[in-house]
């Protein structure tokens, strides 16, 4: 049976922290599906899902073990649709952990989907999409916090 994991998020923007989670999760699975949420009620000002998805696809186009797709609704439903038994999430802090803990509990109880938490590498703990959006809004160059396309 193929081991499939999904890594879900709004990814607005997709950061070097997200890339770190992808690279560290990939050896755990035969295939990793990056799920770009299309409808996040907590973030109504997101860039269009298709735009975010295409940017991430471009990063990993040379890796056949990674797929990038948009989804709407619950992460556990997306995981089931992808025949995945695991959702991968990154945690930077205690507040991230507490939020992911209750989500993991519902994903397991309601969907039979396990959650794997990967802790952020210490040097990336302050990198967040929200912070990058705010810095960018005020004209700060955030390119050092965005992953570069792989070279073949």
Structural notes for this entry:
The chain has 152 residues and is α/β, with parallel strands linked by helices. Helix content is 37%, strand content 20%. The protein contains five helices and five strands; from the N terminus they run βαβαβαβαβα. It has helices at 16-25, 49-60, 75-81, 94-111, 129-137; strands spanning 4-9, 31-37, 66-71, 86-91, 114-119. A five-stranded parallel β-sheet has the order 3-2-1-4-5, sandwiched between helices. Helix 2 links the parallel strand 2 (31-37) and strand 3 (66-71). It is globular, with a radius of gyration of 15 Å. The two termini are 30 Å apart.
Helix content: 25-40%
Q: Gyration radius, to the nearest Å?
A: 15 Å
Q: Number of helical segments? A: 5
Q: Ranges with pLDDT <50 over ≥5 residues?
A: none
* Strand line-up in the sheet with most strands: 3-2-1-4-5
Strand content: 15-25%
| CA-CA gap between termini | 30 Å
Biggest sheet statistics: 5 strands, parallel
Question: Looking at the structure, what is the overall shape?
Answer: globular
Number of strands: 5
Order of helices and strands: EHEHEHEHEH
Q: How is the topology of this model organized?
A:
Elements: E1 4-9, H1 16-25, E2 31-37, H2 49-60, E3 66-71, H3 75-81, E4 86-91, H4 94-111, E5 114-119, H5 129-137
Parallel strand pairs: 1-2, 1-4, 2-3, 4-5
Summarize the structure.
This protein has 152 residues and is an alpha/beta fold. The chain has helices at 16-25, 49-60, 75-81, 94-111, 129-137, and strands spanning 4-9, 31-37, 66-71, 86-91, 114-119. Helix content is 37%, strand content 20%.
